[in-house]
Recover the amino acids of this structure.
């Protein structure tokens, strides 16, 4: 099991129920792979450095995860097909 950080930028116009739904989906996907979500930090709305998908702002969320290394590919694939997720990045923590 390795530790990872996942930063997601979620569509700014998403309502609170949809926003919380995305967070719960990520927690579920990590749980399905045998991992755990250690901490979730909601950073709030921030201005993007450049326009992405016609958006100037996004809602940032940081997840601290513990999961098997092979599970990152599955998580990556699941996040790729979520329309409200504008961008995301998974990084391994030493």
């Amino acid at each position: 099991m390795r530790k990872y950080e996942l930063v997601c930028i979620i569509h700014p116009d998403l309502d609170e129920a949809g926003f919380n739904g995305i967070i719960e989906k990520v927690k579920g996907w990590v749980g399905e792979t045998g991992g755990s979500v250690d901490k979730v930090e909601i950073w709030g709305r921030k201005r993007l450095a450049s326009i992405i998908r016609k958006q100037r702002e996004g809602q940032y969320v940081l997840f601290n995860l513990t999961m098997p290394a092979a599970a990152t590919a599955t998580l990556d694939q699941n996040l790729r097909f979520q329309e409200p997720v504008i961008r995301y990045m998974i990084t391994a923590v030493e």
